[in-house]
Amino acid sequence: MGVKALPSSAYGRFAALCGVVSAVGVLGVVGAALVVPVPADAAASTLAAAAQQSGRYFGTAVAGGKLGDQAYTTIANREFDMITAENEMKIDATEPNRGQFNFSAGDRIYNWAVQNGKRVRGHTLAWHSQQPDWMRSLSGSSLRQAMINHINGVVGHYRGKIYAWDVVNEAYADGNSGGRRDSNLQQTGNDWIEVAFRTARAADPSAKLCYNDYNIDNWNWAKTQGVYNMVRDFKQRGVPIDCVGLQSHFNGNSPYNSNYRTTIQSFAALGVDVQITELDIQGGSATTYANVVNDCLAVPRCTGITVWGVRDSDSWLGESASALLFDRNGNKKAAYNSVLNALNNADPDPSPSPTVTPTSDPGGAGQIRGAASGRCVDVPNSSTADGTQLQLWDCHSNPNQQWAYTSAQEFRVLGGKCLDAAGTGNGAKVQIYSCWGGDNQKWRVNSDDSIVNVQSGLCLDAANNGTGNGTQLQVYSCWGGNNQKWTWNRG
């Protein structure tokens, strides 16, 4: 039977993802999602054609060893327009010996894809897993240089041919640290991810460059926040990153959560595309599949979806997981129908949800005074350190309470620092941070005296209805309380 091909995320967490029975219990196997189909004469009949109606792609992972299976290739060719090599473009496959590249397996998949009119995602260039023995034996500067050489070799071979590269894969640790994985690549220095992206950009300026990871789907998880902070930092400093890949292997240990859309929106607001790169759902819930697709469709910068395999019998999870859109015989499952219906009901020209428009541009500079407390939005100790949480304090005329509101909807203070929301959930702190143009630094000043964050739609809020000196500021669901009302006092 041979060794089952595992996707990028499999090796480090296969044991955690087994237990299919319990996963099915969590996710549930349900019928078709409650999606109203469009008339048959207006609906696309394949996943790719339906996704193309809104300018997106719908792809799959392909294993080279199955290209001789006619039933497999018939479905892959008919339904998908973006192809990812399941294993054939990874490090061990493309550079089995140091400095000796072998692209035969990767080229076979690439050639099949383009001959059938499809684009290709490249997966993956720098990763702690599936390294050949020669690379695992290296460390320090030798490993760093080997990584650079590998990226140059692989990206150079496919220069101008690949739509997007997963440049770095799974560099963040599971758990509550929000920090990096302690891999051999990480041990070469914390800048290794930046170096990988800069190397890939130089090797192929036309390819989109993505960071790809699993368990970054839930906005509330520390790992998600860690990756978000890295991407935000990269965008601020001009590190070339174009997209974030959410693997979205949903199971009992990492179930779909309704804040998935918030995650997509939050990454997109940083100025990167979001691509769902390795989607499968243990149990194959049609409702969950539809929810995932609709969450992507709701965000214009969510540019495409890739499912990790064609039929259940092709899944790295095993056929019993029932995680994909087709059964072993190639029959369309309920999940397929729910996905197709969702794609066919997409807005062909998506735009952001309507927002409340400020009654006027306040202009000038001055204090932001709380209606409940009579105290002002204050930068503690006039700090200019990024991440300093703001507070209420007795109003005065010092510069740390003088806020200039710009035509870009930013509140600026202390020469180049912006009023900044550190997250999109209730209780996310409001801080100062170097201005960089993200939606988390844009605020609507409304006629009801609320100040609303553009990214999250949440209100500037004095925590716990506090009114005393030192009360911390946060964003919170708007509810009309006086702790969310502010007087603009132009200087």
Automatic annotation (TrEMBL):
Residues 344-371 are annotated as: Disordered. It comes from the Bacteria. Its EC number is 3.2.1.8. The keyword Iron does not apply. InterPro entries: GH, GH10, GH10_AS, GH10_dom, Ricin_B-like_lectins, Ricin_B_lectin. GO terms for molecular function: endo-1,4-beta-xylanase activity. Pfam families: Glyco_hydro_10, Ricin_B_lectin. The active site is at E278. This is Beta-xylanase.
